[in-house]
Amino acid sequence: MAQDTTVPKLDFEYWLDKAMKWGQGTTLESQKDVCLHLPQLQEFLHQVYETLKHMDSIVAIQQFPLIGQLLGRLCWNPFVIGYDESQKTLMWCLCCLYSSEPQNPVELKANSWIRSLLCHLLSSSKWESNEADTSTFISTLGYTSADYYYHLVKNLVFSLVAELRGNQFNGLNMQGRVSGSRVNAVSLFCLPLITLPDITPLLETLLLYQGGASKEILSSEFLEAVNDAFLKKKISLPESAVFSLWLRHLPSLEKATLHLLDQLVSIQLNSLEEVACVIKDSLLLQAASHPAIFRIVNEIFKNALLETDGTPEVMTVIQVFTQLFLQAYQNENKQHKFPLKAYFPYHHQPLVTALLRHPFELPTTHWSQHLKHISDMLKALVEDTNITSLADLFEIWFLVARFGEWLDIAAEQLLKAAVEPDALLWLLAFYYCPQNENQQRTQTMVEAQAVYNHLMMLFSCTVLSVKDLEAAVHSITDIKQCCNQHLVTHLFTNFLLFSSGGHMIAQEFIYYITEATDTSKEVCSLLVRTAYRINHSGEENQRTVKLLNELLQKLTLKV
């Protein structure tokens, strides 16, 4: 029997033949042969695991077609699973074969089979070689079988958590004694068990584990699986564990951010309160208190805006996220605050400070002055000869765009307050037309000024007709050919909301102007933002709120 103990590397046929002969180790001869080969078998299993962990599960099964049969038989041999670390190595091998995203019934069935084997291995103990003895032992402890295995899993989790957290003895932290490969193996072991509630303490400990290594020691498959389960609400994790996950695995943070955008863009945008609730529930807002996460989320938002060509739904989400972030930042304990420059490190700080000022921190009578200050700084920056690239210009534009509340207020102040219009019109022209190639922004200013002048002549009229406003439209040669339909539509919409006579013709004219400029979605977003600001300003303006709701209902059906 000693003649065949030298085994070729990864010789699955040899070990499958052995496993079939051994069965479950019921005869004395098979038990002796198992014991004789256990060290070599353990080495073989370790080599298998080292090979599998670098392979995709489908590729592994294709390359080693006998692996399923072999592992399945070994898992039921009490001598094999009772020897040293063979049981753990079998678990690791099974985890490598588990498909995180099964594509067909065969893979689903394979996953189910792997889970059953893992449950069997988790519940295995040295007494299980005799089922009757096991039952007697469990009964003596006062447990049912279900209770016993439940406590066994909890104890296993507790043991692994204790090992990872390290022993604290006389102030000495023993965490460093746990090897990186051991931590990586534990993370792989968790893969098929992530959604089990009893595993949560182990998931949390792994995510918070800091081993001091320069490279990530947790497997990327584990981090991706935990993130997916969290986003699908299959598991619940403490905030600290989620933040640590996103800090140590950027693909998970990107997926979480895009998941939030998809959620919000796919729902009907009826109120910003609803948007705010979804954002807060995602934990991304809370995580963004860390400057590194905030800046990465900022980049993802920026790319999403570029890829969607500035769709109003995405822009609204970004603006609401920024508002909520600032509220949370202002409420933070000053001792634990990062400086604002940590969140906006590459921008003109006086402009950042001015934009960060919440409108309701100032008296409404000071709004136009503050907006002029923002416009003057922005104009000086944009017209600076150092701003030579489109990328630099986009960075400035995106900073301003994030604080859309000030832009909406600028458009309102033009109509509601006695202001010098040039600075506020320039601010809006820059937002809607940041590039001045071929004098586009200059032309936008001319068109906006013409519409604004005509609207101001009509602003105090208590009785208006649609034809009166059509004349304002015709003050531009052709609304469909004007440099920026969005800015013009923004001015008209505010006129309907805040002028004396605009309410009477609002529903009829809003249909006309959005049809002429193809801006239904943009106007919907503007109305939702305006309703949110009025509701949170304490203004008693029931008539405007009622009109906002009526217009939203009309446009929502149109969109």
UniProtKB/TrEMBL annotation:
Cellular component GO terms, alphabetical: Fanconi anaemia nuclear complex
GO biological process entries: cellular response to oxidative stress; interstrand cross-link repair; nucleotide-excision repair
Any Pfam family matching the protein: Fanconi_C
PANTHER family in UniProt: FANCONI ANEMIA GROUP C PROTEIN, FANCONI ANEMIA GROUP C PROTEIN FANCC
Name of the featured protein: FANCC protein
